[in-house]
Amino acid sequence: MASSHCGRSIVSAIGGAGSVRHRFADVLAEPVSHYTDAVVAGGFIFIAGMLADDANGVLVGVGDVVAQTEQIFENIEAILAHLDASLDDVVKIVVYVTDIADRAAINTVRVRRFGETRPTSTLVQVGALVDPEARVEIETVALVPTPHAERAR
Prior knowledge:
Elements: E1 2-5, E2 8-14, E3 20-23, E4 38-41, E5 44-50, H1 65-82, E6 90-97, H2 103-114, E7 120-125, E8 136-143, H3 148-152
Parallel strand pairs: 6-7
Antiparallel strand pairs: 1-2, 2-3, 3-4, 4-5, 5-8, 6-8
Helix pairs in contact: 1-2
């Protein structure tokens, strides 16, 4: 099934147990492996680990962990917006870094993007990411937003 939302093409497929898999072809580059950009299941939005790639698959901010983190958050926010969610709905992130010393620089972006909304978080140093010039990857879990009227109850 294919659909259009916010002027972008989205390819969605119904998965097991009512999950819906989303591929945002006009927003994100083609995955480097066999996965989808996001899955909505059980009241949650699961977003695959994001690198700082632009829509053409070019890594943004080579050598600059802050620029890479900014691009990753742009990608995450684009996915969330397509699913009528925002960073306010994020409940967990997992941050993979190639150098733990980058934590403080990455945190400046997180503080600015999340503000007072603080998701749970795990930070892990890894030996390498799929793109050798990538310094950070972020995976995200968000709640599927409920209509405003239901939130007010």
